[in-house]
Q: What sequence folds into this?
């Protein structure tokens, strides 16, 4: 009986040992599968990048018993850029969200002391597939508008509503080719581009101002579109960012819509920078304001629009 008991005990121990070995093998296999899945997930995540930039520029001018005279003023400007970029083998997908808003206060304005001086909302998405060497088949969507209402001020005590969210709004949808010889330069060209102008307001003077037919809120155009992007460091801590967009509708071919933005950024340290930014626009459909019997109306001809901003402030890259 003792012999049988000993044999039974040895059998149980051997089964237990084999079972433990099997469990260890299963556990190793499970860990290997989990590790492979994690590697796949990490590799897939590695194809994405999410760079961004946020900043705030601020300036103040104050006078106390200043003999030469002057007016107290405050200017503030906030901006945000978010990017989501994907690159895997022959596929490239870039997405950009850009927003900016600024206000200034001046005691010289007895009415409407606070006035808007910058307002921008832009969303761009570009999908590319490698064709040959530095060329990509490409599809582009670009949307532009602003956040809030804008005014001009014929006098210190009066103002006229001239813009707002989707007043105007611009949407470009196109298919073409992108040439990217290096990481600093890309050129996009499309002979098949649809451009939509939105003026989502019932004020007929606004539709006249932005080229939309009176009584309607949308104008569609078909034409050719080209954009040139540059982003590179001129020297250490000095960056140049350039964006030039050209569009010409086929029904008025030769009349070129121009949108050109240039920004020079000089970093003082990780958080403080100085920048010089210019923005030039021309659209033959956009009428300039004209003083008609003391009231500013969009009855002038198209003009070159230009803005420049010199600022020192805080910024953070992430």
A:
């Amino acid at each position: 009986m003792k012999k049988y008991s000993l044999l039974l005990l040895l059998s149980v121990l051997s089964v237990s040992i084999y079972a433990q070995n099997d469990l260890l093998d299963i556990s190793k296999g499970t860990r290997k599968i989990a590790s492979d899945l994690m590697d796949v997930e990490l590799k897939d995540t590695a194809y994405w990048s999410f760079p961004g930039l946020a900043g705030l520029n601020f300036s103040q001018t104050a006078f106390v018993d200043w003999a030469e005279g002057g007016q107290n003023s405050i200017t503030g400007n906030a901006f945000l850029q978010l990017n989501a970029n994907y690159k895997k083998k022959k596929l490239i997908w870039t997405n950009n969200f850009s927003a900016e808003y600024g206000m200034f206060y001046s005691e010289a304005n007895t009415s409407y002391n606070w006035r808007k001086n910058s307002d921008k909302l832009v969303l761009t998405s570009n999908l590319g597939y490698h064709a040959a060497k530095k060329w990509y088949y490409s599809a582009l969507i670009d949307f532009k508008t602003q956040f809030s209402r804008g005014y001009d001020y014929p006098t210190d005590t009066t103002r006229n509503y001239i813009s707002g969210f989707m007043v105007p709004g611009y949407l470009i949808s196109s298919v073409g080719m992108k040439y990217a010889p290096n990481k600093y330069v890309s050129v996009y060209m499309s002979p098949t581009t649809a451009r939509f102008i939105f003026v989502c307001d019932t004020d007929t003077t606004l539709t006249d101002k932005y080229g939309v037919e009176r009584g309607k809120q949308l104008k569609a155009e078909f034409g050719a579109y080209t954009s040139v992007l540059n982003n590179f460091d001129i020297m250490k801590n000095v960056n140049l960012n350039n964006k030039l967009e050209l569009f010409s509708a086929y029904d008025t071919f030769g009349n070129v819509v121009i949108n050109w933005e240039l920004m020079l950024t000089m970093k003082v340290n990780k958080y403080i920078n100085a920048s010089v930014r210019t923005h030039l626009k021309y659209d033959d459909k956009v009428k300039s304001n004209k003083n008609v019997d003391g009231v500013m109306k969009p009855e002038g001809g198209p003009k070159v629009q230009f803005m420049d901003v010199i600022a020192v402030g805080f910024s953070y890259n992430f």
In short: The first strand starts at residue 48 and ends at 49.
